[in-house]
Design goal:
Elements: H1 3-14, H2 22-26, H3 34-37, E1 43-50, E2 68-69, H4 78-97, E3 101-104, H5 112-118, E4 123-124, E5 130-131, E6 139-146, H6 165-169, H7 187-193, H8 200-203, E7 209-211, H9 215-218, H10 238-241, H11 245-249, H12 253-259, H13 269-284, H14 290-295, H15 302-315, H16 318-327, H17 333-346
Parallel strand pairs: 2-7
Antiparallel strand pairs: 1-6, 3-6, 4-5
Helix pairs in contact: 13-15, 15-17, 16-17
């Protein structure tokens, strides 16, 4: 693994840019090379699968009454799909050569993007994701490790040039510098990995993004060469392309699991997802959604109730919100903090 990438990862963790993803720190030493993960490894075979979406994902940001789910998560879970394909190839390779093989898709301490760049699949752009001259930014990655020594491919060089569109478009300023990401400010991290209340200053910039964010990927000029995914299971399901926020906010656990069956969204759980939806409802500024936010003030989950308080502040008249605050009988400390902000938000200067 290039020392530059190793140093960059170590620096990011030392600065706390990994947020609550503590496994990155625990597995840092194992990420330095594939041999650290599997000492018998002699070659890493990097592969990619295109998941190019239909149309421009940024266009969905204007429909504030509907939630925006990242393009990669609108179809079936890529982990299952890509791993299935990798296993087929690995079994073929093992049968032909008697080599030992192991397959990985985003679930092991491997630095897939630097490996993919060394294999010539693309380069890590300024947004830290892989960019391909053929597929733009829309790529899933997988790795096959084998004890079979294979000749290396030519690595890909950086073609970002002076462009900084991906950095400038980020609504939460998550890039402290080109090629560096502070996950704590990244909407993908906040909506997927972050388990607690969304930091107050980052709620409004989230807009209607309820699972992931495509902004830095979608704006990349190399996407002009991208094509729509040919794998049908990666195409957006109709019910996930532009789902109404009021429908999503009323999901209970059973209906959440049914809606997101075979979807990567399911792994964050109903409560975290509805938290995201309520932030989007608050950002919608649609008064008709006030009743939806009000219903969630009595939710069984403190995480949901806290987000419902914030959404209600954005949608209710100040006097009505102060009456709700006066009637609240909340025991959870995190939700009580949200209610404590109500008077400050609704009192005229």
């Amino acid at each position: 693994m290039p020392e530059k990438r190793q140093r960059a990862l170590g620096r990011a963790i030392a600065q706390g840019h990994h947020g609550t993803m503590t496994w990155l720190e625990r597995t840092l030493a194992r990420r330095r090379s594939p041999e650290a993960l599997w000492p018998q490894a002699r070659s890493a075979i990097s592969l990619s699968m295109n998941y190019g979406p239909v149309g421009d994902p940024l266009a969905r940001l204007t429909n504030r009454e509907c939630g925006m789910i990242s393009a990669y998560a609108q179809g079936d879970d890529y982990h299952d799909l890509v791993k299935g394909r990798l296993k087929q190839l690995a079994q073929w390779l093992g049968a032909r050569t008697d080599a030992a093989v192991k397959v990985f898709v985003d679930t092991a301490p491997l630095m897939e993007k630097p490996l993919a760049q060394q294999a010539g699949l693309g380069w890590q752009g300024k947004h830290t994701n892989l960019v391909s001259r053929r597929h733009g930014s829309w790529l899933f990655l997988g790795v096959i490790l084998t004890d079979l020594p294979l000749p290396p491919d030519a690595h890909e060089t950086d073609h970002c040039g002076g462009c900084r569109r991906c950095l400038d478009i980020c609504p939460t300023d998550a890039f402290p510098a080109p090629y560096r990401l502070d996950a704590r400010r990244c909407i993908s991290y906040l909506t997927i990995e972050h388990a607690g209340p969304i930091p107050l200053a980052l709620r409004a910039p989230m807009g209607n993004r309820i699972y992931g964010c495509d902004d830095c990927l979608a704006v990349c000029p190399w996407n002009k060469f991208a094509s729509v995914a040919t794998e049908a299971r990666l195409h957006a399901r109709e019910e996930l392309a532009s789902p109404p926020l009021d429908d999503l906010a009323d999901l209970d656990d059973r209906r959440f699991r049914a809606l997101f069956r075979k979807s990567p969204v399911k792994r964050i759980g109903r409560d975290r997802f509805v938290r995201n939806v309520l932030i989007a409802i608050g950002n919608s500024r649609e008064r008709r959604l006030a009743a939806t936010a009000r219903r969630r003030l009595d939710d069984a989950s403190p995480l949901v109730r806290g987000a419902a308080v914030w959404a209600s502040v954005q949608l209710f008249e100040p006097a009505a919100m102060r009456r709700l605050a006066a009637a609240a009988r909340e025991r959870d400390v995190t939700v009580r903090r949200e209610w404590a902000l109500v008077n400050r938000a609704t009192t005229p200067p």
